[in-house]
Design a protein that fits this description.
It is built from seven helices and twelve strands. About 25% of the residues lie in helices and about 25% in strands. Strand 7 (about 195-200) and strand 8 (about 200-205) form a beta hairpin. With about 290 residues, the chain is of the alpha+beta class. Strands 1, 2, 4, 5, 6, 9 and 10 form a seven-stranded mixed beta sheet that branches.
Length: about 290
């Protein structure tokens, strides 16, 4: 996927980009979903879409947010069909998005959440090279864990196209990391199978091949794309590699569990009540502090 011949970080904010940022920020702040932003930035202009995402991320950093990794989205054909798009995207993970340590996750701050299961990689080395390849990516991975990503769209009714979800930080919200850590010489990501349940009822199934053919290929795509836009992946960062099967709506009071072969089980319970702020990322043994 070609984003732009110009690095996203070098794109000067234009009025349409700033208006899209304000629209998405207002939706997040008020809890009221907004119209799509493609009327402002176009349906296919990924350079503009990532410029919106970048400006949103910079404002979040300025407010004290700490970047801990990235998420890859739209890697599963099933999810692509659900949303009517045909290519992957990425978003930025911040420390307050990690809710692995919570007994129950509140839904009061979420607009229209959905959940999906995936493989998460934790990097042990920077991914910066003139010619990134699969071997380089494999060597950079310290370990992998099972993960749940809670996605959310600030766009009303999930009426999104590729530029809407890219601008909206890949429709990201929260994530949960499992506790079983495996090196890549201990399992093969493409060979995993996934089964996700909601209160014991199976709601999603899939496998490693559903994630862009191989979760490691998704990681390679992200490494190349992140370098292209001038913000390469760094040691210690978490990468959510993409859905292994269809996502499912989240409702308060529901407990989701995903079993990913080799990587074990990861779960989360949702509540309508407010919960304490999530613990710092460094408290989760599955990750390293990227700072």
């Amino acid at each position: 996927m070609t984003i732009s011949s110009e690095k996203t970080t070098d794109v000067a904010p234009e009025p349409a980009v700033i208006e899209a940022v304000e629209r998405l920020e207002t939706a997040a702040r008020t809890g009221q979903p907004c119209p799509p932003v493609r009327d402002l930035i176009g349906e296919t202009d990924l350079g503009r879409a990532y410029a919106v995402q970048h400006l949103l991320a910079e404002r979040r950093r300025a407010a004290g947010g700490r970047v801990v990794g990235r998420k890859i989205g739209l890697t599963s054909p099933a999810v692509q069909r659900q949303l009517g798009v045909d290519q992957p995207d990425f978003g930025v993970l911040f420390d307050d998005m990690d809710v692995s340590g919570l007994v129950a996750v509140p839904t009061d701050a979420l607009l229209q959440p959905r959940i999906e299961a995936e493989v998460a990689f934790v990097l042990g080395a920077d991914l910066v090279a003139d010619d990134l390849d699969l071997d380089t990516v494999r060597e950079a991975v310290d370990h992998a864990v099972a993960a749940l990503e809670i996605v959310d769209s600030r766009v009303a009714g999930w009426d999104i196209r590729i530029t809407d979800t890219v601008a909206d930080n890949g429709s990201s919200a929260l994530f949960v990391l499992g506790s079983t850590r495996l090196r890549l010489d201990e399992f093969d990501p493409v060979a995993v199978t996934m089964r996700m349940t909601a209160d014991g009822v199976v709601v999603s199934e899939g496998n490693g091949a559903a994630c862009l053919g191989d979760p490691l290929l998704a990681l390679l795509w992200l490494a190349r794309t992140a370098q292209e836009v001038g913000d390469p992946l760094r040691a210690g960062q978490v990468v959510l590699s993409g859905a292994l099967g269809p996502m499912h709506p989240v409702t308060p009071g529901t407990t989701f569990r995903a079993e990913i072969s080799s990587l074990g089980t990861v779960g989360v319970t949702f509540t309508a009540d407010r919960a304490p702020a999530p613990a710092p990322l460094s408290s989760n043994p599955a990750t390293k502090d990227p700072s």
